[in-house]
Write a structure and sequence with these properties.
alpha/beta; Rossmann fold; 4-stranded antiparallel sheet; 9 helices; 34% helix; ABC_transporter-like_CS; nucleotide-binding
Length: 262
């Protein structure tokens, strides 16, 4: 199927301020799949998401990242977004003077061919539909982007952006952080509704509670800047019950951290 995305990461190495954080990550995410990455703090999880998206503070020192056999690392950040890579950030930025509606319509049109911009009425209908699914008040469309939003409102807004932009690869970096159980269920429902062969999802999380609502196909454990173990949903349940010590003991890992993630 031509529309099924395929992200391939091979031996990816990334440094920040001359400190190596990722030390050879290998991972493949295909359309229709949900992958969860778990691991202790400081092991490189958020570094991976930032490197895929092209954050300028993160220097790729080795390896490859491709999307549908195209070299992602050679793309500018805006080109990565136009190719369909989406990052829902742990700490979304506030932008004064730009409304949610204006931001989203501009972002949608930026991914379309010139002359094929979304009509205002089509945009409004789609935004109303997706905001309803996320139980967001209609006033959110007119508020400045994330300005004055609570943590939970920011996370819902990130999922709204994903639902409107319809990416090919969605990276959700600790999207469950700071959410109460009701908000968590709504956010998870939004992700589940988008599940399709045309979307690959990479979830970075510390907690099983999110995976109770979004069942992953694959769970990966990251330690010392590498993926050291992979399995199915049962792996996340065992981590919740037993922690990470059994993996460290199994693999002979003494110090699981590689430095603070930024």
């Amino acid at each position: 199927m031509a529309n099924v995305p395929h992200l391939k990461i091979e031996d990816l190495k990334v440094s920040i301020e001359d400190k190596e954080i990722l030390k050879g990550v290998n991972l493949e995410v295909k359309g229709g799949e949900i992958h969860a990455i778990m691991g202790p703090n400081g092991t490189g999880k958020s570094t991976l998401s930032a490197a895929i998206m092209g954050h300028p503070n993160y220097k790729v020192t080795g390896g490859d990242v491709t999307l549908d056999n195209e070299d992602v690392l050679e793309m500018e950040v805006d080109e990565r977004a136009r190719k369909g890579i989406f990052l829902a950030m742990q700490y979304p930025s506030e932008i004064s003077g730009v409304t949610n509606a204006d931001f989203l319509r501009s972002a949608i049109n930026a991914r379309r061919e010139e002359g094929d911009e979304i009509s205002l009425m089509s945009f409004i209908r789609e935004m109303d539909k997706q905001m309803g699914a996320l139980e967001m008040d209609e006033s959110f469309s007119h508020r400045y982007l994330n300005e004055g939003f609570s943590g939970g409102e920011k996370k819902r807004n990130e999922i709204l952006q994903m639902m409107m932009l319809k990416p090919r690869l969605a990276i959700l970096d600790e999207i469950d952080s700071g959410l109460d159980i009701d908000a968590l269920k709504v956010v998870a429902q939004g992700v589940n509704e988008m599940r399709s062969p045309e979307l690959g999802v990479l979830i970075i999380t510390h907690y099983q509670r999110l995976l109770d609502h979004i069942t992953p196909d694959f769970v990966h454990v990251m330690m010392q800047g590498r993926i050291v173990k992979s399995g199915g949903p049962e792996l996340a349940k065992r981590l919740e019950a037993e922690g990470y010590d059994w993996i460290k003991e199994e693999l002979g890992i003494v110090d699981e951290t590689v430095g603070a993630e930024i």
